[in-house]
């Protein structure tokens, strides 16, 4: 089975919503729940894991704020770099590029920080023809984890 560009775009959108929600938990303000639905949605199990990850990231945000590092906004771009379909399971390679803007004047410090991270998102095709995100895991490339990734807690 192969998937068309429209389905790849839906996979990218669903992955982007997961990454945006994680990143929003780090911002000085409210976190939001992603709204991936329709032909691609997040499974109940994956949503519960994401809720846990977002709660941990919110606590990390508070720790960062105590250390004087507060993020005001984020720009997140996602790109599909691979899709492999085996039976009713699609494994999607996503590259995330995120820029976090610091809140307030940081003097001689740069106004933002950025990172790029690779992720593997796995979707299952249901009998109703919709794809369900069942896991979202970072790709370990060595080095430090992305700031919006909860250490030791892939979904």
How would you characterize the overall build of this protein?
This protein is of the alpha+beta class and 155 residues long. It has a single domain, classed as Nuclear Transport Factor 2, Chain: A (Roll). It has helices at 5-24, 44-66; strands at residues 40-42, 71-86, 89-102, 112-125, 131-138. It has a five-stranded mixed sheet with strand order 1-5-4-3-2. The longest helix has 23 residues, at 44-66. It is elongated, with a radius of gyration of 16 Å. The model has no long low-confidence stretch (mean pLDDT 88).
CATH fold-level topology: Nuclear Transport Factor 2, Chain: A
Overall radius of gyration: 16 Å
CATH class: Alpha Beta
Figure out the total of helices. Answer: 2
What do the pLDDT scores average to?
88
Q: Which word captures the global form?
A: elongated
- Share of helix, binned: 25-40%
Main β-sheet, spatial strand arrangement: 1-5-4-3-2
Total strands: the figure is 5
Beta content comes to 35-45%
Q: Structural class, please? A: alpha+beta
Low-confidence stretches: none
SSE order, one letter for each helix or strand = HEHEEEE
What CATH architecture would you give?
Roll
Domain module count: 1
Q: First CA to last CA: what distance?
A: 25 Å
Largest sheet entry: 5 strands, mixed
